[in-house]
Amino acid sequence: MIEKRRTFAIISHPDAGKTTLTEKLLLYSGAIQLAGSVKGKKTDKHAVSDWMEIEKQRGISVTSSVMQFEYNGCCINIIDTPGHQDFSEDTYRTLMAADSAVMVIDASKGVENQTKKLFKVCLLRDIPIFTFINKMDREAKSPYDLLEDIEDVLCIKTCPINWPIGCGKEFKGVYDRKKNEILAFTANNGQREVDTDELKIDDPDLDKKIGDDLAHTLRDDIELLDGAGDELNLDDVRHGRLTPVFFGSALTNFGVEPFLNEFINMTTPPLPRKTVDGEVDPFDDRFSAFVFKIQANMNKAHRDRIAFMRICSGKYEKAMEVYHVQGNKKMRLSQPQQLMAQDREVIDEAYAGDIIGVFDPGIFSIGDTVCSPNAKFKFEGIPTFAPEHFNKVRLKDTMKRKQFVKGITQIAQEGAIQIFRELDSGMEEVIVGVVGVLQFDVLEYRLKNEYGVDIIMEGLPYDRIRWIENEDLDPKTLDLASDTKRIEDLKGNHLLLFTSDWSISWATEHNKELILAEFGR
Fold this sequence. Notes:
Layout: E1 5-12, H1 18-29, H2 53-58, E2 65-71, E3 74-80, H3 88-95, E4 100-106, H4 113-125, E5 129-134, H5 143-154, E6 157-160, E7 162-165, E8 173-176, E9 181-184, E10 197-200, H6 206-210, H7 212-228, H8 234-238, E11 242-247, H9 256-266, E12 273-275, E13 278-280, E14 288-296, E15 305-313, E16 315-317, E17 321-324, E18 329-332, E19 337-340, E20 343-346, E21 349-351, E22 355-359, E23 369-371, E24 389-395, H10 401-413, E25 418-422, E26 429-434, H11 438-451, E27 455-459, E28 464-468, E29 485-489, E30 494-498, H12 501-510, E31 516-517
Parallel strand pairs: 1-3, 1-4, 4-5, 5-11, 6-11
Antiparallel strand pairs: 2-3, 7-8, 8-9, 9-10, 12-13, 14-15, 14-23, 15-22, 16-21, 17-18, 17-23, 19-20, 24-26, 24-27, 25-26, 25-29, 28-30, 28-31, 29-30
Helix pairs in contact: 3-4, 10-11
């Protein structure tokens, strides 16, 4: 069963077509019959992977969705990560649960800023990266320029698995280098079955089918690629040194099925995972998993809280007893579920590579390990990424303090925001840090709609934060610049907020014993 598992994340810059590609992959599994639009219009069918109300309104992915489906004998787990730049911290953490990544690139724009950030996280994980160059049915850069962009900006070799024939109105299809044949393009409004004609490169009807100029260019391109391009080396692929590149159009559903078939063939079953004492093999009989995401109120009627766990080894069985390492106690995972965005199904078993959601009464945190009682693995922690924007947040109605504290604490535990407070202060007024400013809108929306709380937000001038590594150091004794603020997080860790690099230099120069870190523990 484990050999048939594939678990991957889809990453991209906003608007590159990531959610659309996810929808089309689901089409081939039979999980959905018609792909939804991802535009923010009331009349449109919303994408299955976008389940939160604010996502439907804005036509963006705010939260990571987890979807599982069967295809060609394989069990595939897709993690549809938020593509919007303001949700990158959630995306970083989600990549910790994937064994490979599919990088979606807009053919007219090439590698964009958000793609660079996400790519770096993939490199840290040493995981395979597959590239789908999307929107070939629109005007696009030269495929050579796109490959050069990937190699120069991301410092990874490329190997085109197929090659585009034209673009935009002149897009005629792709050449499959492995089969030495042409898949001709016919638009079909996103339905599952694509009308295609398969032609060999030496077919006498080729010039008439795609035009003399494109046929001549294609023959030259093939000769150049075969002579000068990087060869497909699966060992390089599996260690993130080379990315297989596919061209297509997710919106028109062209090139998606060939991509999915090749992806399954090239990817591996679940990979070993690092613990504080070594590695855990996915084929180890002992069960182990770690929490990489927590989401409250997926079912608004039940006010529930779900912990998403990536199974790393062994098999989950119904009602089995597990050990929660951080809580230092045995427990039973309550009603494990597999999910299709907000839809869920209670399961009796799951294997390494699978992602399950379990009911969380408030005991789990991101990075926690659960395992068989006789195993006691402890996976390496997931780092806390430094927020870049800060607001002071307080209640409008002080009578709702309890709801405010519960709501803001739960949302922080999900990892969507980070909460800090000034030293020796309570929770009536807190400092909220986020990676991107749109997360402030999400916070305000969720507090009002899920917890019935109205808030007042006030911008703060800080844009740099550092954790104080010295555990026995009293931050009140530090000699700091006047624009530096002393704060603490909910775990009691001490931090400093700065407005400039000069203020950071002042702190370290005037306090020789001070040790600052850019990532939290």
